[in-house]
Design brief:
The chain is an alpha/beta fold. The chain has helices at 5-16, 25-34, 40-57, 59-62, 91-95, 104-115, 166-181, 198-206, and strands at residues 78-81, 121-122, 134-135, 137-138, 143-147, 187-191, 210-214. The protein has one domain (5-214). α1 (5-16) packs parallel to α3 and α1 runs parallel beside α8 (198-206). 38% of the residues are buried.
Length: 217
């Protein structure tokens, strides 16, 4: 299947130019949660059907004159940056932290200092079937999701990246839904150590979510 069923879904979205955001996406998410290796092809097919229903449901938004609403198929902004000034700890310091859940808070604080953002907050609008969306670093003009996964090499020497997990897929679906209904909502995903996997980057690009990748400090 090449890059896998998720990659196929992203490519299919880009080819059709469909905005993948509505309650219909929740059906595909449920399939994703229950999918096994053999069931991923069926999940991809259901996702395509849900996206088609989503496009129909958002027909009014597409013709509303809000040119700031991104469209699936447009190339999102992807930046690769180095260390930034004015932070409590340097990028190099937080990248040296041991791998594990405890890395999350220092990573978010680094970005918070860098962009003068606020504390983690939950968006007031809830997403049907998925619930609320917690934003790591809300700023004046961005809603930043920080991924500070540890970078390491596997036994085979391959550099590990941030995978497209079920939880991350849900976060992407929430961002897609919220942005379609609130034109001021601007999700930006920042990777402060390990880079996104091919599948994850493909999905973010398909949903037109901006990505910032930081190099080693």
């Amino acid at each position: 299947m090449g890059r896998g069923a998720i990659g196929e879904v992203a490519e299919g979205l880009v080819k059709r130019g469909v905005k993948a955001a509505s309650e219909g996406v929740s059906k595909a998410i449920g399939d994703f949660h229950r999918a096994t290796a053999e069931g991923l092809k069926a999940a991809a097919a259901r996702t395509r059907e849900a996206d088609a229903r989503a496009a129909q449901g958002f027909k009014d938004l597409e013709h509303s004159g809000h040119n700031s609403v991104p469209r699936v198929g447009q190339e999102p902004k992807i930046k690769v940056l180095g260390p930034g000034p004015g932070t409590t700890r340097s990028l190099g310091d937080i990248q040296k932290l041991p791998r594990g859940p405890a890395r999350g808070a220092p990573g978010a604080q680094y970005v918070r200092d860098l962009y003068q953002g606020g504390k983690e907050a939950t968006q007031p609008r809830r997403v049907p079937s998925l619930g609320g969306r917690r934003v790591d670093v809300p700023t004046k003009d961005m809603d930043i999701e920080v991924k500070h996964y540890g970078r390491f090499k596997s036994v085979g020497g391959k550099m590990q990246s941030v995978p497209l997990t079920r939880r991350l897929q849900e976060e992407i679906d929430k961002d897609t839904y919220l942005r379609a209904r609130d034109h001021s909502y601007r999700p930006v995903w920042m990777f402060t150590d390990a880079s996104p996997s091919a599948d994850l980057l493909d999905m973010l690009k398909a949903r037109n979510i901006e990505v910032v990748i930081y190099g080693r400090g």
